[in-house]
Amino acid sequence: AFDPSLKFVMREGWATEASRARFGSSYTACVNDVAVGNFDLCIGDFWVTSERMLMTMFLPAIRTDTFYLVVFDSKAPVSFKTMMESPFQPFSWKAWALILGI
Question: Distance (Å, rounded) from C-alpha 34 to C-alpha 41?
Fold first, then answer.
């Protein structure tokens, strides 16, 4: 009769040192460990990203996260000048000069 020896090992941490050194995300590092055969699976609340899907297969999601982008809705018409200046508004003109090295 077929009697596979089942061995369950719980490891501390998300991923091996080698994978953590290679990837900035510990979740991606864990997925890499599955892809290269260091782990059989990673259990966690993972986002399925395109980078991770290229590494290995995922089971269907148990739940999904929903994000809402809330923005100010102005009914006032926007001038061409305002539209062109808006990408530069996060920083002052002095900060942009410093960033661009002027």
Answer: 6
pLDDT tens string 3-25: 778 777 777 777 999 999 999 99
The secondary structure of 1-41 as a DSSP string is: -----------SSSS-HHHHHH-S-HHHHHHHHHHHTS-S-
Report how far Cα 72 is from the mean position of its chain's Cα atoms.
Answer: 26
Between CA 46 and CA 14 the distance in angstroms is: 12
HSE-CB for 95 with a 13 A CA cutoff: 5
Q: Nearest-5° angle of CA 18, CA 21, CA 56?
A: 65
CA-CA distance, 25 to 15, in Å (whole number)?
A: 10
Lookup: tokens for 21: 């050194």
**Reported pTM:** 0.57
Coil, strand or helix at 88: helix
Unique residue bearing structure tokens 């490891």 = 11
